[in-house]
Amino acid sequence: MTDVRFQRWLAVALLLLVVFTVIFALLLPLITTGLAYHEEKNDLLFRLQRQQSIAGRESRVAEDLEAIKQQFSQQGYFSTSSTEALASAELQNIVKTAVSDAGGQLTSTQGLPGKMNDGFLRISVKVRMTANMEALLGVLHAIETAVPVLIVEQLDINPVRGARNRSTNKVEPSGQLNVSFEVVSFMRGQTP
Fold first, then answer.
1. How many domains does the chain contain in total?
2. Is the CB of residue 121 less than 8 Å from the CB of residue 184?
3. Distance between CA atoms of 89 and 82, rounded to whole angstroms?
4. Does some domain include residue 15?
5. Which of 122, 127, 163, 174 has the smallest set of CB atoms within 10 Å of its CB?
6. 86-92-93-99 Cα dihedral, nearest 10 degrees
7. What is the per-residue pLDDT across 77-116, written as a single tens digit (0 to 9) for each?
8. What residues make up the domain containing 158?
9. Rounded-to-10 torsion of CA 93, 94, 96, 98
């Protein structure tokens, strides 16, 4: 009797083993696939929310960009003249005022041809002047702080030869400098 009972339990155990194996073989891939789909769905939802967040900021970014452009144009970094000749004349006037206010003596100014670069027209004026060191510093400071933005290029400074002292027969320094440089300004390129 124990042998029959043992066989029954063994048969039930084998049946349960087969049922669990079939269930495990069928359900495990389904569960794994379901979990993978759930993870992919969560990832796609996260991406969608992020894209919606970015799209929602588009109008605010456009408004901020417009405000920056307006602020940039109000700050006057570029010459507001309508033509290259007017911009060159304006630049020469700024330099003339800076030299006279600093106590220097303007020898000459010459407008150079403008050059187009990255959508901006480069306006240049070649300047020659005579000044002492303090006046030169004053001119350079006035140019540096001017609006529109001005850039000094090709600065060349040479001392003025002093007068010969008749009693010692030596040349005494004059304290004056011959200075030549270019002042550059920019204006927005004209759109045809």
1. 2
2. no
3. 12
4. yes
5. 163
6. 170
7. 677 777 888 888 888 998 999 999 999 999 988 888 888 8
8. 84-188
9. 160
